[in-house]
Write a structure and sequence with these properties.
By secondary structure, the chain is α+β, with helices and mostly antiparallel strands. It has one domain. Helix content is 33%, strand content 19%. The chain has two helices and two strands. It has a two-stranded antiparallel ribbon with strand order 1-2. A hairpin with a 6-residue loop joins strand 1 and strand 2. The relative contact order is 0.22.
């Protein structure tokens, strides 16, 4: 079950980065990094899954959104 939860966190990091909100922030040059962390109920520790996305190049081209040349500030 723990591994399944970890895989879900990894997938959700990707899903967050596929949103127009995150991609628009990157297009504006805004520093933004999405991390994958998981809380373990058995010991109460927060674990870093070492999953990070910080730029459009981190996501597959298929999910990269076309940005207008005048991205809203």
């Amino acid at each position: 079950l723990d591994r399944l939860c970890e895989l879900n966190v990894i997938e959700q990091v990707r899903n967050v980065c596929y949103t127009t909100i995150v991609q628009s922030a990157w297009a504006r040059g805004q520093p933004l990094m999405v991390h994958g962390l998981i809380y373990a109920l058995h010991d109460g520790l927060l674990r870093d899954l070492k999953v990070r996305m910080s730029k459009p190049e981190d996501i597959p081209m298929l999910y990269q959104m076309d940005q207008p040349s005048d991205v809203a500030e």
